[in-house]
Each structure stands twice: as C-alpha cells, then as structure tokens.
Task: structure prediction
Amino acid sequence: MPVINSIANSFDEMAEWRQHIHSNPELGFECHETAKFVVERLKEFGIDDISEGWAKTGVVAVIKGKGEGGTIGLRADMDALPMPEMTGLEYASTNEGKMHACGHDGHTTMLLGAAKYLAETRNFSGRVVLMFQPAEEGGGGAEVMCEEGVIEKYGISQVFAIHNMPELPVGEFQTRAGPVMASVDDFEIEIFGKGGHAARPHFSVDPIVAATAMVQSLHTIVSRNIDPIECGVISVTQIHAGTAYNVIPETAKIMGTIRSFEPAVKAVMQKRLVEVMENIAAAYETRAELTYHDGYPATVNNAEKAAFAVKVAASIVGEDKVSDQAARRMGAEDFSFMLNKVPGAYVFVGNGDSAALHHQSYNFNDEAAPVGASYLARIVEAAQPV
Ligand code: NI
Result:
C-alpha cells in the first residue's frame, strides 16, 4: 500500500500551502497568521469542530470517524526560528530575521494533508484530534497545551507526531522504542569574589580563577561520574566576567546546558554539578549560586506504539525503507510533554539531501509532504479501524 492516491494528487496544493507558510514564518507563541491559515484550510475541508487559542495561537480540531471508538491525537508544530534565511528561494521568508529552518512549515502541511484526506474519507472509528502547536523551538507550546488540559478535554488516549530529517532519503522513516530525543536543561552559576586592583591580587578574591577551575571540573562529570554505557552532556557555553585589563571583578558567571535520556543520569549530573560548584568555589575562597532550569524532558516512545508506527510506515513505503533503530539525538522536542501523558510515538521522515536543520540554507522538501501525510492518515485508520 503506497502513498495514498488522493494525497499524492494533492501534491501541488500541499506544496502551495507549505510555500505560503514558508514565506510567512512566525516565532514562538505568536503564530497568529499561521493559525489563521490552518483554520481556513480546515474549514475548507468541512471540519467544523475547531478550537483556537490553545497556548495563545495553537489550533485544535476534531474529525469524527464512523461509529464509536477511541480518540487519537496527531500533533504538528507551526513555529519558525529567529534567524535570517539564505536559501535564495522565490518563496523565501518575507519576515526579516525569521525563517522556517526546522521544517515546521512542512509538518503543518503534512498534518493538513492528512486532515483533508481524513475529513473526506472518514474511514476510521471514533475521533482524531489534530493539534497544531506554537512555540516548539522554545517556550514549550506543547507543555502549555498539556497544562491547559488538551489531552483530558478531548480524552486523547494515544499521540503521534513526525519530524523531517535531512540526509535520510525522501520516502524513508526512522524511529525507535524508548528515548529518541534528550532532556535539555540549562544552568547559570554566579561566583562571588572580591574585586580589586589587578596589580594587588592578594587583596582580592578572584572569581575568574574560580570560574575557570569550575569549567574544567564540570567537564569531568560526564567522563568520571556517568556510566560509559549511558549518555550525558554537560557543556559550558558562556562565561562572563570583568570590564578592564587592570581590574579583578567582583563576580563571574558560567552558563551551560545539561542533556540526557534517562532521569537517573540527569540526577547524577545535577548532584555533581552542585558538589563541584560548591567545593571549587570554597577552594578558591569564593561563593557560588546556582540557577537551574528544567527544560524539555526526554522524548520517550512507547515500545508498542513505536512498533505500530514502524508497521504503518512500512505499509506506505515498504519494510526496507523503515528503520526501528534510529540514532538517539541530543536535541530536544516538546512533544515529550504529550508522550509523558499518554503513550505514542515520534518518527523521523526523510527530507533527502537538504541542508541541516536550523541552517540558513535549509528547506523542507515538498516531496516528503505526501509521504508524511499518508503516514499520519494511515496511523489513524490502522489504530481505529471501522
Ligand atoms: Ni523542529
């Protein structure tokens, strides 16, 4: 069973939607025009159960199938990135400094393509809930929609989402059971010393020396405290101190990111972060304060749903084009908040030979849209057969 015929026939229309969204990228929770565009399309498809304003600009729509059945959720992200576009495309961004460099224009299009087909055919039981979310690239739009009760309000019992992947050929899928994307936290350490004249260091307490020692030691946590079989990242990404050649500053700041797949690994890194910070600070006669921010949790696929996703993807593109051994990635994804509420699976679909995600030359491949849309549609039909 290849790409669904009627969806393949919508190729031109889907490319038009995608390129329109691409030209008009919006950031974070401010996806006003994108949401409006989505709602207009959904109404054209004859979908009337539409709820707007989720996480400010998110859109939730319901399509009823034939007869009683469960409620399945499909999610797409709509937001772009704050960066200049350098693709040279005729439909390049018209909003300066904003760009669809992660393919969320394509994700929105794939879910619209699936919605059009599902609304026409209704060849499933129960209901499908389409969730178009803002603020995936920061802000956690999916988390906000979960907090606003989207899962409970609609009684969603399983969720599925898709992300394009450059370098994976168009028409191929990858996923895996268990963690597929990392949890991402950030931290800020402020070190308090005693400022003074750089020519008389013995009258000061130098926070820069403490900060540099701390950076060195923080980078040993993963190599010395984490089981080599497990995965973790601590990267110090910013260090700020001082204003002059001849002044020892009063304070210094270190910022960075902590990533892992397993809560137990994260716990070890957090504990050691505090211990290393406090003890290095003391060794250099300084004092340190930590601000820790929990970001997106790890994206964890339910094993059964991941196997189901593989089966459905294989029914579209063939078994040899689907891998259940996708490499885990240290990036993060706020679909994780939905997967923490109900079981589901997150899959990658090939974007072919494109620039990398978040690159100024990146572009979503329109050829991938019918493949992804067919997958989402078949997920619903296979999960909730008539
Ligand atoms: Ni993305």
